[in-house]
Amino acid sequence: MAGRDDGETQRKDGRNVKVAITSYGKDLSGKVDRSFGRAKWFVVVDTGKESIEVHSNKQNVNAVQGAGIQAAQNISNLGVDVVLTGNVGPNAFRTLSAASIKIFIVDKGIGTVKDALSEWKAGHLQEVNESTIEGAWV
């Protein structure tokens, strides 16, 4: 039941696919953060080069409101094509979708960023076409 683009590491325009994974840590061994908008870190992987960049989401971790929208805008500004996360709220979903960013849900049994990326590449993650939770509040 793969909902991704068959784990393609290149877009039709020849550019490498960039995947952002929500994480509690700053590298591939970090545990996947179940939240999108309030994730501590975004590990961004260039799938063609297998290089990573790590981006803090500190400004949104304790935000009273708007965390999902702001995090989604930040991800879009990084040129990300795919997000792997545990959950995504309605505002973040709409913002990511408007930017043509695909969203895949990482099951609770998948522990690390590296594991989530491998599962996506293998076609084992489900793409979502709506938010997976209602709006979140701290």
Verbal overview:
By secondary structure, the protein is of the alpha/beta class. The chain has a single domain (18-127), classed as Nucleotidyltransferase, domain 5 (2-Layer Sandwich), CATH 3.30.420. Helix content is 24%, strand content 20%. It is built from four helices and six strands, in the order βββααβαβαβ. A six-stranded mixed sheet has the order 3-2-1-4-5-6, with helices on both faces. Helix 3 links the parallel strand 4 (82-85) and strand 5 (102-105). The protein is globular and about 35 Å long.
Key terms:
six-stranded mixed sheet, 4 helices, single chain
Brief digest:
Helix content is about 25%, strand content about 20%.
Itemize the secondary structure elements and their pairings.
Elements lengths: L17 E6 L17 E6 L4 E6 L1 H4 L5 H11 L4 E4 L4 H9 L3 E4 L7 H9 L4 E2 L11
Parallel strand pairs: 1-4, 4-5
Antiparallel strand pairs: 1-2, 2-3, 5-6
* Parts with pLDDT < 50 across at least 5 consecutive residues: 1-5
CATH topology label: Nucleotidyltransferase, domain 5
Count of spatially separate domains: 1
Radius of gyration: 13 Å
User: How large a portion of the residues is in β-strands, by DSSP E?
Assistant: 15-25%
How much helical structure, as a percent, in the residues?
Answer: 10-25%
Number of contiguous helices: 4
End-to-end Cα distance: 34 Å
Q: Mean pLDDT across all residues, rounded?
A: 87
Tell me the CATH architecture: 2-Layer Sandwich
Order of helices and strands: EEEHHEHEHE
Give a quick account of the main beta sheet: strands, pairing sense, barrel closure.
6 strands, mixed
According to CATH, what is the class?
Answer: Alpha Beta
Side-by-side strand order of the widest sheet: 3-2-1-4-5-6
